[in-house]
Amino acid sequence: MEIDKKAPVDDIINEKDVQIGTITDLDEGEVFLRQNGFNQAAIQALLDDQPRNKALVRKVDLILLPLLSGTYMLQYIDKSALAYSAVFDLLSSTHMSSDQYSWLASIFYFAYLVAEYPWNILAQKTKLAKVVSGNVIAWGAMLMITAACSSFTGMAICRFLLGVFEAPITPCFMLMIGMWYTRAQQPFRAGVFYSCNGLGAMVGGILTYGIGQIDTIAVWRAIYLILGGITLVWGVVMLLFLPDDVISSKRFTLDEKALLIGRGRLGQTGIINHQIKWYQIREALIDPQVWILFLFTLLNEVVNGGIASFGKLIIKGLTDDSATAIALGIPFGGFQIFYLLGGTYLASRIKNFRTVVMFVYLMPTILGASLLWKLDHKTYKVGVLFGYYIIGAYVCSLVLAIQMPATNLGGYTKRTTSVALVFIAYCAGNIIGPHAFLAKEAPIYQTGVKLILACSSAQAALAVLLRFMLARRNKQRDAAAAAVGQIESSADQSAGEDLTDFENPNFRYVF
After folding, report:
1. Dist CA 61 CA 64 (whole Å)
2. Which residues cross the membrane (predicted)?
């Protein structure tokens, strides 16, 4: 279909189906449409072309998902380098105690906590992909530098800087998914790249099992050198191929960009706006939805902080051989892939099913924690292993929770602020979690396991609360629209403005 893109911008702005306004206050996707002569009729014609839509989604998938997935796999492996090294000779080589090791796990997230929001602001004001790619290169280099450490102090400094450089990755990825896909498609795409945590657990286990056979240098140093080198090279690939945003990407035609923006308008969330709007920050801070997601994520990451740091040590308690302990941990990644792809697929395919999935996928975590706590680790080794494998179901609930601010809030600054707040909770939980796993309770770690049970049960209640709150908001908006006889075109008018979900009466929440 040919679209007339030569009409003067002033004529487009003054058409009935485009609201007159200050162009700097608009979403930048809307500015692009106006400057290139795409009116509402032209956008609708593109949206109605289903073969074109399917081809475009496939193109975006092929460009975006391999880069996001590869980065996420490496991020998990690199973040887990500490846990892999602890199974081998890290603690003895650096003369660290178990308590110092716990602090190393937490220091990473202290850095994450400090750096995440500044990186988000920089990414909004500048180039999203360049911020991400530069940090991937920097964290790869930092891993290699870590191999030179010989004490807790050196490890702590490198671990802190690693957290600084990894901080923008997940928040920026969630914003990218929100930018390139419709709201219905976003959960599964987020699940695809996040499931590479599970793939990373498998690949990392196999890779470090092989590295563990090295006898020329300390195994933990070899782990950091090899993983860091791989990540550094991958960062260069990201720098060359990851697009910053829909509008500036050179790999899409004008019609494809217009269609991507039109698809983004369907959810009333917009595409991107580089202007920081302080009132939207304030609105994020007073929105109950944001704070429910904050608390949900905090509890989730208390669970994750403990399992990520001490899960492999729990397994090591079942065997005397370090390499066997690494091998026994590999299926954990396979279970995570199953949970993530299955849960996010259901959330994408079934309307308003996200909070249901968040609730249901906490049940295996509760069961797994109960098995770790109550089964004798000497007599029922298979049962303990099974409990460890299924406990990771909570990651599916996490993905849906941390993706929700990017997909369920209007106003670009409000979205970035809310994503940042949720990731503050992400950091805080990971800081808290490892300290509940007390060295004197190894290898069962009763206190840590009981904390996992409490946190996952509270999360289940929060998922129910969030569902009822968002459903109630939608019903109130539907009733208000019916009362004033709201016309469909008003949704088209407000879609291109950088409005928050509170400002936009046409916005409807997904739950």
Report:
1. 5
2. 60-77, 101-119, 131-154, 160-180, 192-212, 218-242, 290-310, 322-341, 353-373, 385-406, 418-439, 451-470
